[in-house]
């Protein structure tokens, strides 16, 4: 079994969070804390990130072609992992990020303050002519939405 797993990886993600003023923002972050070890010996080592032992709910959701939701906050802190198709997230600060397979987002925009225009949280929807199939991993507990890039 070789310990040479190559260079330590960096995995980028978008973090949709709420700032101290109650405005949702998106920050480009990266997971960098990986350790080369076997998931279950005698399997060869692979790069493993930090484990989180909180209760979670996992589901797959399908946004139809042309679907756009209304302004809303994420129901719980959650990872959103596109499996196929493309989708977008627009935060209250005007940042719009489009994502497809291989790009991930952590949605944590709870406790936003509604603007005069009715914006609170984020707007999301599909991009292109395919449904967006998303895997969602929701944390059971509330987190600190005002700390961007907290997953190293």
Output the CATH topology.
Answer: Jelly Rolls
Query: How much is the average pLDDT?
Result: 90
- In DSSP terms (H or I, runs of 4 or more residues), the helix count works out at 0
Biggest beta sheet attributes: 6 strands, mixed
Radius of gyration: 17 Å
* Total separate domains: 1
How many DSSP-defined strands?
A: 11
Strand numbers in spatial order across the main sheet: 2-1-9-6-11-5
Broad shape: globular
CATH class annotation: Mainly Beta
- Look at the helices and sheets and give the structural class: mainly beta
Measured by DSSP, the beta-strand proportion falls in 35-45%
Low-confidence runs of at least 5 consecutive residues: none
Spell out the CATH superfamily. Jelly Rolls
CATH architecture label name: Sandwich
Task: Describe the overall structure.
The chain has one domain (11-139): Jelly Rolls (Sandwich). The model has no long low-confidence stretch (mean pLDDT 90). It has no helices and 11 strands. The radius of gyration is 17 Å and the shape is globular. The two termini are 28 Å apart. It is mainly β and 152 residues long. InterPro entries: RmlC-like_jellyroll, RmlC_Cupin_sf. This is Cupin domain-containing protein. It comes from Plantimonas leprariae.
Keywords:
three-stranded antiparallel beta sheet, RmlC_Cupin_sf, 44% strand, 0% helix, 152 residues, mainly beta, Jelly Rolls, RmlC-like_jellyroll, Cupin domain-containing protein, six-stranded mixed beta sheet
